[in-house]
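**Protein record**
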Amino acid sequence: MGAVGSEPRALGRVGQTTPVLGICYLAVAGPSMEPTLHAGDWIVARADGRAGVGEVVVLEHPHRPGMLIVKRVARRDDDGFWLLGDAPDESTDSRHF
């Protein structure tokens, strides 16, 4: 359990994805980011590899290749990023991986 070592970035797909000039349009699935994002909401993700504390990021789940997750950057430390969902009781995040 702990920080995610790689840089959060937009990649792959959650629902439908349409890459255009490094931008992906993603459909949210699940309640982990409520009340900020709800299942069925669409987000725009920029694939630039940069993320700061407080920003919402899309990244590949560290234990489920090909599965993307949407989380918020809670902090950054020497080991990488600590990511949390906005709905802690509904989120699988850095507290679990």
User: Anything to note?
Assistant: The mean pLDDT is 81. Residues 62 and 78 are 18 Å apart (CA to CA).
